Amino acid sequence: MDKKYSAGRKARYSLIVILIICLIQAKALGQEVEENEIDLEKIVVTSRGAGLGLGQVSENVEIIGQKEIKQLPVRDLGQALDYIPGVYVDPGPGFDHPSSISIQGSDSRQVRVMIDGIPLNTQASGQVNPSKFPIENAARIETIKGAASSIWGSSLGGVINIITKDTGTTLIPKGNISGSYAGYRTQKQNGELSGKVAGLGYYLFASHMESGGKGARDDVSEKKAFGKLSYDLKELGKIAGSFGFSQGDVNSGELPDGTWEATPYRCQYGKLGWSNNFEGVDLNIDLKNSRQDIVTKDFDNISTDVPWQIIRSKDVLYQVSIVSAAHPRGKDLLIVGMDSDWDILKSTYLTKAKSLNLQAPFTNYTLKLDPWHLNFGLRYDRNSEFSEDLSPSFGCVYHFNGLPATFVRANVSHAFNAPPLLWKYYDESLSGLAVNPDLKPERAWVYELGIESQPLSKLWLKLSLYRADVSDAISSTTNDQGQWIKKNFEKFRRQGIEAQLKLQLLRGLSFFSTAAFNDVENRLTREIVKDTDSPRQSFDLGFEYKHKIGLSLYLDGRYNYWNRTYDIFQPNDKKFVFDFKASQKIKNFTCFMNVYNLFNSGYWADYYFPTPRRYFEGGVTIEW
């Protein structure tokens, strides 16, 4: 019998046995667990820049909390984002190297990624590699699908904001340490500590990860740290500061032509903020900074340590953000704010450093007229390199009184998305790429419609539709000399549908599923746009089980059809890849085991960079 087939069959039998045991335990013990209820009062910060209940937000929002993150079989932010419905992480070359993020058919540069509101998108590529940033320090992840330009700007695809854990409140420190080991010679250690001394609250985090990868020159070594301090000034308000740091050496493994790449990086980001309340008006002033140094070293063959080419880029951002929030009539929400950015970019592809500045005042008003919630937004972007734009938005939410936890939301917004600065100025003699100094920003009208409902106490449903008509859409093409060039096209249309379901089968055992379809079309030629960062079709299904004795089981399978060019990428992607996690908490100890690619699926979006075959990870966490 074929060994791979035998191993796959054993894995399936093992999974079935585990699920049967779960069912028996759930029925026999009759433990009490929380029902699957929609928490419409759950506070969303990212959608308005200030707290607003989930049931009052007209945008399509997903929130993953700290408890949900702990359930997932993940080691970094990139892996965690891949579990959010409608968010797709395209794996890059090498073992465990996520490279780009997409939301609902968008390009990765159209997704704004932030940590505590600190922008991380660079002016070199416009995108963010999420694997550079930790997941353990996240209190929750808030995702807005679709344009959110009335608050954030340059976010045609959506916004992802990682909100970190707060500072401690007790004199005796609380914290944890964790260690794990996995296949491909992978190991990770991390720890957290929080408390409060003499009115000064603190939170500290550090981690280290190493992996040998699947083959030669496919190793990874990363160090990450994060710290936060806060101090209450009584009637003078509150000050808080945070600082994050990531450093890594990431190697690509052998590329199709026998070469390999090393991409060491160094990221630091932070902010210092002051907040106070003046007769019912909340005022927040934040000074933000990020610096990302990225190096690409190209090597002729797998046996050499001397690069034939080194490409460097340094991206520095300074931002001043002022946001005030008031509550007219005691229940409405009025937001008035201003962002002022200064970006500096240095690159091997530039003869000299380039910079841009941005000023963007914005306002947003949420009017509560039960059962309606109406939202009006306006943002003005003045970009020193890419012109200016006015972005209005309108949204509404309607709650059905006769149906429990059921509401419809709709949103229309105008979006402005500036390309990265490098695309406009890179030197052709240094890069070998054709430059387009006349590159214009993308503008779009985005339409969204959705419904969420919990018709039964154990059944939750969500359906979302979207369409984005993008003018001056930017994509890659070749010129008359056969060189790649970034070019504006007359109009692209992105549209799609997304459906979600969660069903509680028994106490503690739930089934969940998501299906999505994304279509990107060149409206001038009526051709489907291929090789985007987002799959054309995707499905997600799985089970989660929680027991009051501390046992937690999580199984998730993802299916993506990436719509790649067959003769170039030769994709083998129309199949499910399942991951599994089991954890058991006993007092202050938690043991866990992750199984990646549980059924040993031969999957790849790019023929030369297949997903690793099945491997295991085991670890323990000690809390105090």
General description of the model:
With 624 residues, the chain is mostly beta strands. The chain is built from 6 helices and 33 strands. The strands form 4 sheets. It has a 22-stranded antiparallel β-barrel. The protein has a 5-stranded mixed beta sheet with strand order 3-8-9-6-7. The longest helix has 27 residues, at 3-29. It is globular and about 65 Å long. Mean pLDDT is 87; it is low at 1-8 and 10-36.
Structure summarized in a few sentences:
This protein is mainly beta and 624 residues long. It has helices at residues 3-29, 66-71, 77-81, 421-425, 428-431, 566-569; strands at residues 43-44, 52-53, 60-65, 87-91, 98-103, 111-115, 118-119, 138-145, 158-164, 174-182, 186-197, 200-211, 220-232, 238-250, 260-262, 265-278, 281-299, 309-326, 333-347, 354-369, 372-383, 388-399, 407-417, 442-456, 459-478, 484-506, 509-522, 527-528, 537-546, 551-561, 576-586, 589-596, 615-623. The chain has one domain (3-196, 355-623): Maltoporin, Chain A (Beta Barrel).
Q: Calculate the terminal CA-CA distance, rounded to whole Å.
A: 50 Å
What is the CATH architecture annotation?
A: Beta Barrel
Please indicate the count of domains.
Answer: 1
CATH class: Mainly Beta
Task: Indicate the low-confidence ranges by residue numbers.
Answer: 1-8, 10-36
- Specify the oligomeric state: single chain
The overall pLDDT, averaged over residues, is 87
Number of helices: 6
SS-based structural class? mainly beta
Q: What is the fold named in CATH at topology level?
A: Maltoporin, Chain A
**CATH homology-level superfamily:** TonB-dependent receptor, beta-barrel domain
Number of strands: 33
- How would you characterize the largest beta sheet? 22 strands, antiparallel, barrel
Strand proportion: over 45%
Q: Return Rg in Å.
A: 24 Å
Query: What is the helix fraction of residues, given as a range?
Result: under 10%
Can you tell me the overall shape?
globular
